[in-house]
Amino acid sequence: MQWKGRRQSDNIEDMRGSGGGFSGGGLRFPGGGFPGGGGRRGGGLSIGGLIVVGLALWFLGINPLVLLDGSMGGGSSLGGGSAAIERPRAGNADEMRDFVATVLGDTEDTWTEIFKAEGKRYTAPPLVLFSGQIRSACGFASAASGPFYCPNDGKVYIDLAFYDELQQTFDAPGDFAQAYVIAHEVGHHVQDLLGVLPAFNERRQSLGQAQANALSVRVELQADCYAGVWGHFAEKKGLLERGDLEEALNAATQIGDDAIQKRTQGYVVPESFNHGSSAERKRWFKIGFDTGDAGSCDTFSSAKL
């Protein structure tokens, strides 16, 4: 991926080495941009996130702490005493910070133009870099939480050491695979602006676990599709190199619920899926990538996932 020398976002909050202090100010409940999920991108319902098991905590998606708390309306801590999980740092931390800032900047440019085309204003999410542990507006998170989006403060969080795990544990190397991680979480922010996430928080109160899981899959696949939309425009700008698309599709395959369950428990339980199978994640990323149209990402109306 051709990323060096491009604009970097200044919307980065570097909390590495801060000891996991609370990030952000007062709590808020985002989702004002497109009330009710209007517009051609399809409204629908929203985040899910009942956790699978074990390494499922590593896959892309919403911070599971939000769901464990039972409410997106207020921040929660799961209690003190949790030690930071020590993991190897990404090879070159400074270069990785520049990479993340560059990818985030490009998502800002892409979604600003998409929203502008519909007469809307895109509000970009801050991205918080942390190491070991962090206290977000969604509660305490350790490195084991993986990258996540917190709807209570509208921020994306990532420990850069996750990229080592993406390559070593999930066998998904490559800079475009790493960019996909960021674009997926930004996709959740887009859903937040569309009103998708608040809609699910309200509806899930009356849903059983199986129904909540099913809706969770649809929101995660939509975030994958939005990541593909960003990838489409990155390709048009000439940023992609040979093999980049394959890197992202491989990452989508490796973090499918079925792949994770096979890796962690040796068998698959489809009714517990909350992010989608490998084939589904790969398919929806490719839909966004091929079309470059966020309107094609209506996973809530689609009969086939």
UniProtKB/TrEMBL annotation:
Query: Which InterPro entries does this chain map to?
Result: Uncharacterised_pept_Zn_put
Q: What segments bear the compositional bias annotation Gly residues?
A: 17-35
Short name of one Pfam family: Zn_peptidase
Q: How does it sit in the membrane?
A: Single-pass membrane protein
**GO CC annotations on file:** membrane
Per the UniProt record, which residue ranges are transmembrane? 45-68
Where composition is biased (Basic and acidic residues), the residues are: 7-16
Q: What is the name of the protein in this document?
A: Flagellar biosynthesis protein FlgM
Q: Where is this region: Disordered?
A: 1-35
* Gene name per UniProt: ypfJ
Sorted alphabetically, the keyword list is:
Membrane, Transmembrane, Transmembrane helix
Compartment annotation: Membrane
